[in-house]
Amino acid sequence: MQDAVDHGSRAVERLQKHAAKLPFDLLEQIPPISVPVRGIRLAHDTMVSGVHVAIRLVNRVAGYTIDGLLFVVEQQKELAGTPGEGEASAPGAPAGRRETERVGP
Fold it and tell me: Terminal CA-to-CA distance of the chain, rounded, Å?
């Protein structure tokens, strides 16, 4: 999933910059506004790249966080000795007792 988001973000970033290229190219050919347009293009491209860098960073952090949580859950299962099928304990039930076992007289 991480790779799909990463590749998708890179593709969208390229498309967004490509879509803005022709208008910027045309506007840069008009002498009175060519210099400001170059600055606006630079700002545009920088912001588009920044947004996609942030998307990829959050994606990476989320992926590592989920991987870590899954690792901890698996470790807890191993330490607790995962009950076999049909032997699931009720949440909060004392260790070693199944939900269907009677506790008192």
Answer: 53
